[in-house]
Amino acid sequence: MFNSLSDRLTATFKNLRGKGRLTEADVDATVREIRRALLDADVAVPVVREFTGRVRERALGAEVSAALNPSQQIVKIVNEELQEILGGETRRIRLAKNGPTIIMLAGLQGAGKTTLAGKLSKWLKAQGHSPMLVACDLQRPNAVTQLQVVGQRANVPVFAPHPGATSQELDQPAGDPVAVARAGVEEARQKLHDVVIVDTAGRLGVDADMMEQARQIRRAIVPNEVLFVIDSMIGQDAVNTALAFDEGVNFTGIVLSKLDGDARGGAALSVASVTGKPVMFASTGEGLDDFELFHPDRMASRILD
Ligand code: GDP
């Protein structure tokens, strides 16, 4: 994903190799190159500005280390700042102390929520959890079926508001996602599932009705985590979409999906920075195993590799 950004940054640092001391002009030239590389990778302008400002300040500052030469020093600073904009430390799911841990998924249609529900439940199962999925995307005709298929592949039960599903949901009003979410969580509690993942409806763009529905679901089920799923290839819209969802549902973590794509991907790097929320997972393909816990330090190192 970040190949071209990675190449550009590596080339920039190569120019500094062998220099015994960096002048202010060296630092400025380097920061300029970093700025261009980030902008070309689609990182949002305010994020680039802040990032390069901090790198410049630190590079010119008193952080002189006997162990590192000037080019290593700058690489170290950029590495730490990249890690910071990606959310700092690795952030794991906060498990509920009593009853099921409730995880709500939110994001635009096509972002990868339903696929993520399967990936996350398979991953949680492998760690000894007993997840259950709840289908609250009643907007898209196929969404419930799609979640059921994903549930079958991951071998986890799916609570869904129509016949053929596994539970008492026939009592629920089929058209009300808030009621379905509430009933799904209740069923998970009764059946002693320790994690319940609630898939919600998205639209192609940010939409007031969709957001209100997501907000109501959040209020009804009081999730431990609200994961905002974003397609890494969405480009410059990423920032506004993320800000809208953050305002709408106050998400607790970010999932970058489609990181396997070959788009520039820098917009995804901006999302954590502008919302102040951590990236928690990376989705890297259509298969249920194409999924990993996101480590900001490893991603930063990979970009600077
Ligand atoms: P939703 O509308 O948010 O539930 O999105 P879906 O889970 O239905 O995903 C939309 C499309 O993106 C589907 O065709 C998925 O197979 C595909 N998809 C989801 N996650 C990934 C990913 O990480 N990489 C790739 N390449 N495709 C993905």
UniProtKB/TrEMBL annotation:
The keyword Magnesium does not apply. It comes from the Bacteria. It is found in: Cytoplasm. The keyword Ribosomal protein does not apply. Its EC number is 3.6.5.4. GTP binds at residues 107-114, 199-203, 257-260. Residues 278-291 form the SRP54-type proteins GTP-binding domain. It catalyses: GTP + H2O = GDP + phosphate + H(+). Keywords: Cytoplasm, GTP-binding, Hydrolase, Nucleotide-binding, Ribonucleoprotein, RNA-binding, Signal recognition particle. Composed of three domains: the N-terminal N domain, which is responsible for interactions with the ribosome, the central G domain, which binds GTP, and the C-terminal M domain, which binds the RNA and the signal sequence of the RNC. Belongs to the GTP-binding SRP family. SRP54 subfamily. Involved in targeting and insertion of nascent membrane proteins into the cytoplasmic membrane. Binds to the hydrophobic signal sequence of the ribosome-nascent chain (RNC) as it emerges from the ribosomes. The SRP-RNC complex is then targeted to the cytoplasmic membrane where it interacts with the SRP receptor FtsY. Part of the signal recognition particle protein translocation system, which is composed of SRP and FtsY. This is Signal recognition particle protein. It comes from Pseudarthrobacter enclensis. The gene is ffh. The chain holds residues 1 to 305 of 526 of the full protein.
